[in-house]
Specification:
heterodimer; A: 233 residues; Rossmann fold; four-stranded antiparallel sheet; 8 helices; B: 439 residues; alpha+beta; six-stranded mixed beta barrel; 16 helices; elongated
Chain lengths: 233, 439
């Protein structure tokens, strides 16, 4: 499903060379829920950006759904991103001047769906996240938790096979964070592969698999204790 | 997607009203200043008779002083002598030919209270009307016999007909001028070639004359011209006869030549005519005739003044300055919205899609700048009218037509797109990941 082999990412300025990822290799199977943890500056976000085709690796091989993405041009990368990947950001990243319906509509527009199909998909995902009645609300008229639900709806509308979440509960209180995590678990249970970057061990423990990153390398790759015990026992 | 991009453009403009207004204003001021001058230039340099301008030719014969040219560096005089004009007319070598000069007349309207007034007339031959596609409201030109027999007939301008006959059909009615009765054969409809190409010696932007008369008739009545007369040697004593037989130039002569071959043939005819006159002791200078079509003639006469050309360059430079300001404002706007670009790219928009979205938004700003620019152009032209209100032709120059309105809006849109190109391209070239960090 997702295969990274010896990926490196180097940021260069005139005087400094920063290795954000070093020989980073990872395989993620379809339907997995993977949590990526690590200290700030460890390379988590760089990994997520490369996985989401938002930037390119300096070296190494990256295959998404069996396709080598390193040679793709911008148009093909954009299409792949639009069709196969959904993003959830820490600060929701909704477009403030668009209402809920139009925010969810954005990726569908780029997908080229007709008005009827877009409308049906939007209604469906808004029902999934429990915001069917808020379609005409602007983001500013919603709570943080609701905004993140809209962002999740937007990520799900195109029915991607991958959901990449960058600290999805970082801006939410514990109650709302719990509800968003429940929603992600529900989505994962329906077969969507999720990779979530988080700082919080409690949230990471809800994933099938924990990866710990430090200095641009994976230093730990294991199932959480509870899940490992369940698998072993 | 176009409607979607238009909707996003409108939303974005509403979201950033100050920046959007500044950009619109920068474009509008540039367009307003530029189009004000461009409009004046356009009217001044326009082709006054596009359907025939390549066929109509102005004749210049070098009958001038052997010791110095009529016009530097070596051009013949701007007009021809009566002797040559009548000889060329009689030869009838062109498809059509018209001799002409401007004269001034005193018109005595009917009625005890009506006061006599002066009016400009063009004395010409009947081909004038067909050559220059003059439209008629009533009747038509006088006939050939009237030319041949120097009959007192007249073609009125529409305005004079309104004044004298209340706008009714006056054909067959009579009009008293310089104490003599003249029969009306026709009334021309609105006709205002700009520039007044057929006689730029009396002002390229002056009004068309109020009436038209057979030149044979006015010559027979010894009516002098009210335009320019230039002589390279003193006019001999002897009054009218001496004047018309002198080497003074005071008449204009036009011919209609259907193609290049006809033009070459007529030029050969002119050269032959001058050679025959040399044998009679005239035309002391080397053979140096000119046959210019309408646009060549207007360019040669420098109808568009150099100062207008300089103003045009300055106006274009001003537009460029305004556009550079717009580029700066757009750079600021696009930079401020780099997060939006990154987000849209993350959600699947290609560089091309985002580029198109932002270019369309710039086009909308250009459109609003263009509409405002047209308004400012109109204000600018009104300003020119006020500034030069003493000049009777200024109304003709300082006016916009739909072509110029369209051109102003199109120029504004193209300018906005040009201004948006670099900032948008730059923003779209950045990796979405780094743009997302700005959110």
């Amino acid at each position: 499903m997702l295969s990274m082999q010896n990926l490196s990412k180097i940021y260069r300025t005139e005087t400094v060379e920063t290795h954000a990822l070093r020989d980073f290799s990872l395989e993620v199977a379809e339907g997995e829920f993977v949590a990526v943890t690590g200290p700030s500056g460890s390379g988590k976000s760089t990994f997520l950006n490369i996985a989401g085709l938002l930037e390119e690796a300096s070296r190494g091989r990256y295959e998404l759904d069996g396709r080598d993405v390193s040679q793709l041009d911008d148009r093909a990368r954009s299409r792949l991103r639009n069709e196969k990947i959904g993003f959830i950001f820490q600060s929701f990243n909704l477009i403030p001047e668009l209402d809920v319906f139009d925010n969810v509509d954005v990726p569908l527009r780029y997908r080229g769906f007709g008005a009827k199909e877009r409308s049906e998909r939007i209604a469906r995902v808004l029902d999934v996240v429990g915001l069917g009645s808020r379609r005409k609300h602007l983001p500013a008229q919603l709570s943080g938790g609701q905004q993140q639900r809209v962002a999740i709806a937007r990520a799900l509308a195109g029915e991607p096979r991958f959901l990449l979440a960058d600290e999805p509960t970082g801006n939410l209180d514990s109650q709302m964070a719990g509800s968003v995590m429940d929603l992600l678990a529900e989505i994962n249970a329906k077969g969507t592969t999720i990779i979530m970057v988080t700082h919080e061990p409690a949230l990471a423990s809800r994933a099938d698999r924990n990866i710990h990153v430090r200095d641009g390398q994976i230093v730990e790759d294991q199932a959480p204790l509870g899940l490992a015990a369940a698998a072993g026992g | 997607m176009l409607r979607y991009y238009l909707k996003l453009g409108v939303l974005s403009i509403r979201q950033n009203p100050v920046l959007s207004s500044l950009m619109t204003l920068a474009i509008a001021i540039g367009i307003g200043a530029c189009m004000t001058i461009v409009t004046v230039h356009y009217v001044m340099s326009g082709d006054p008779i596009p359907q025939k301008s390549s066929q109509l030719h102005y004749v210049q014969l070098d009958s001038w002083d052997p010791n110095s040219p009529a016009n530097e560096p070596n051009d013949p005089p701007d007009q021809v002598t009566y002797l040559d004009a009548t000889a060329l007319l009689a030869a009838g070598e062109a498809r059509r030919q018209a001799v002409m000069y401007r004269s001034s007349w005193v018109i005595q309207p009917e009625g005890d209270d009506a006061r006599p007034f002066e009016a400009d007339a063009r004395s010409t031959s009947r081909d004038f009307f067909a050559m220059f596609d003059v439209p008629f409201l009533y009747g038509g030109p006088w006939d050939r016999l009237a030319d041949d027999n120097a009959e007192p007939v007249v073609v009125l301008g529409r305005e004079l007909n309104e004044q004298l006959f209340g706008g009714e059909n006056p054909v067959g009615r009579q009009l008293r001028m310089n104490g003599e009765l003249w029969r009306v054969t026709g009334v021309i409809d609105d006709w205002m070639p700009v520039p007044k190409f057929y006689d730029v010696t009396t002002g390229a932007f002056n009004d068309v004359e109020a009436l038209f008369l057979p030149f044979t008739t006015t010559i027979a009545r010894e009516v002098y011209n009210s335009g320019n007369t230039n002589c390279w040697k003193p006019v001999p004593e002897g009054g009218w006869e001496a004047f018309v037989n002198s080497e003074c130039v005071w008449m204009q002569f036009w011919v209609e030549l259907e193609d290049r071959a006809a033009r070459d043939a007529y030029m050969a005819f002119l050269d032959g005519y001058v050679e025959s006159q040399k044998a009679l002791g005239r035309f002391p200078r080397p053979l140096n005739n000119r046959l210019r079509n309408v646009n060549e003639h207007l360019a040669y006469q420098e109808v568009v003044d150099d100062s207008v050309n300089i103003m045009l360059v300055l106006a274009v430079l001003f537009l460029v300055v305004c556009l550079l300001n717009t580029v700066g404002l757009l750079l600021a706007k696009v930079t401020r919205r780099s997060g939006d670009i990154g987000l849209r790219r993350a959600l699947g928009a290609s560089r091309r899609a985002v580029f198109t979205q932002y270019i369309i938004e710039a086009g909308l700003i250009g459109l609003s700048g263009g509409v405002l620019g047209v308004l400012l152009t109109w204000c600018g032209l009104q300003g020119i009218r006020v500034l030069y209100r003493g000049l009777d032709f200024i109304d003709k120059l300082a006016r916009m037509d739909w072509v110029m309105v369209g051109a102003a809006v199109a120029l504004a849109i193209v300018s906005a797109l040009a201004a948006a190109f670099y900032p948008t391209w730059r923003a779209c070239a950045i990796q979405p990941a780094s743009q997302l960090k700005t959110l």
